[in-house]
Specification:
Blueprint (H helix, E strand, L loop, with lengths): L4 E2 L6 E3 L3 E6 L5 E11 L2 E6 L8 E9 L2 E16 L2 E11 L1 H9 L12
Length: 118
């Protein structure tokens, strides 16, 4: 995952390619997997083969570090068609545990510099 922070939004975001599992909650339940495009403190974007439904409640599992998966309850805020069978989906996090939030926040901390042998 890169450290390029996108700052146009309310919450900073970073470019990311992390595995995500989404489960749509409600009468039209569905499950899908993909990779994130961006990850932020307030949500994420990912690409999906079909629309999920703007406003849909979703449960997300995101693998962001080796051996770390965070879980969040969210809501689909936008779906933009990007190809014939691909949609960029934006999800706002509505609920995330304090420990998972701390793991997410750690991604936005500057990486410590290590001394180099010159």
């Amino acid at each position: 995952m890169g450290n390029d922070i996108v700052t146009r939004r309310r919450f900073p975001r970073i470019e990311a390619q992390d595995a995500v599992h989404l489960r749509k909650i409600g009468p039209e339940a569905m499950e899908t997997c993909g990779k994130t495009r961006q990850l932020g403190l307030g949500g994420c974007t990912f690409v999906n083969r079909e629309p999920i439904g703007r406003g849909s409640a979703v449960d997300l599992l995101i693998s962001i570090k080796p051996h770390r998966v965070i879980q969040a309850l969210g809501r689909v805020v936008y779906e933009n068609p990007i190809q014939q069978d691909r949609f960029e989906v934006g999800v706002e996090f509505l609920s995330i545990s304090p420990s998972d939030r701390a793991v997410l926040e750690s991604l936005f901390q500057p990486e410590p510099r290590t001394p180099r042998d010159d």
